[in-house]
Structures are given as C-alpha cells and as structure tokens.
C-alpha cells in the first residue's frame, strides 16, 4: 500500500504525528486509524463478493485487478499461447544490426568501378546490389508518377 515511502519520509511522518497528537494520545490514534483501515477493507471485500454474486457463476474467477489494462495484458501474455517467447528469443536485434552495418560497410569499401559493374550486371553479386548506379534496362526511372490531388 505504501511501497513508495522511504525511510526519511517515514521518520518525518512519525515525528509529525508525535508533535501533533502527543506521545500519550498517539497509541489511541494509531488504533483508530488501523480500525478504520480494517473496516474499509472489509467493506471493499464484501462489495467485491456482492458484485461477483450478481455477475453469476461464469464470472466466478473474475479479478478486479484485471480492470487495470497493464495487469490484464500481462496476465494474458504470460500464458504464452501464441509462442511469443520463442519469437522474442529467436530474434537478436544486435546481431541483425551488426549484419546490416557490416553489409553497408562492405558495400562502401567495394565501391570501385570494376566491382560495382560486376555486381550489378551479374544479378547475383553475392546478394549485394549497387543502389547508387541506375538500372540498365532502358527505362527512364527519373519520371515520377503524376500527382493526384484527389488521392491525398
């Protein structure tokens, strides 16, 4: 309930409580506060039970914490019915990025005229394509498609 209260804040609250209520009335105030908290919890639990009874037997395992979207999603993703953990473990972003950077750096070092013409003319070229060179199929790729104002 009070997980985010640090030790310094707790000491400050205790000192303020002693100053405000006095050392002789403080135990009575603490008992009253604890009794009030217990009554609020009991009221909350009875309200939850009443709601569960009104919803019927199909909602007997309904948890009110599931109304929080984060908890609901976490609960359903932890089941892993879709195999998301396999996908997550099989995909290594660092490895993929390293491969891409290696391919880019090797393309920059292979940008000599003889190697770029050989890779674009052969078609396979080890899987690398020179993107800086225009295609040699005879079509003019500088023409842009007409602008359609109605499509935007």
Distance between the termini: 53 Å
> Can you tell me the overall shape?
elongated
Order of helices and strands: HHHHHH
Low-confidence stretches: 112-125
Structure summary, number of beta strands:
0
**Biggest sheet overview:** none
Q: Report the mean per-residue pLDDT as an integer.
A: 76
Q: What structural class should be given to the helix and strand makeup?
A: mainly alpha
Number of helices: 6
As a percent range, the share of strand residues is under 5%
Written overview of the protein:
- By secondary structure, the chain is mainly alpha-helical.
- Among the domains are: 13-56; 63-110, no CATH class.
- The protein is 59% helix and 0% strand.
- The chain is built from 6 helices and no strands.
- It has helices spanning 7-21, 26-55, 69-78, 84-90, 93-109, 113-122.
- The longest helix is centred in the N-terminal third of the chain and has 30 residues, at 26-55.
- It is elongated.
- Mean pLDDT is 76; it is low at 112-125.
């Amino acid at each position: 309930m009070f997980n985010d209260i640090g030790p310094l804040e707790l000491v400050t609250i205790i000192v303020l409580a002693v100053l405000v209520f006095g050392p002789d009335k403080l135990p009575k105030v603490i008992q009253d506060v604890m009794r009030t908290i217990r009554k609020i919890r009991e009221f909350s639990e009875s309200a939850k039970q009443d709601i569960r009874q009104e919803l019927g037997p199909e909602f007997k395992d309904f948890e009110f914490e599931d109304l929080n979207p984060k908890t609901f999603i976490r609960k359903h993703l932890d089941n892993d019915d879709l195999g998301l953990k396999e996908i997550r473990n099989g995909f290594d972003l660092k490895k993929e990025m390293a491969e891409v950077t290696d391919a880019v750096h090797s393309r920059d070092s292979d940008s000599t005229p003889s190697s770029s013409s050989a890779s674009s003319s052969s078609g396979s070229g080890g899987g690398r394509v020179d993107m800086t060179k225009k295609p040699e199929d005879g079509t003019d790729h500088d023409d842009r498609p007409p602008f359609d104002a109605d499509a935007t």
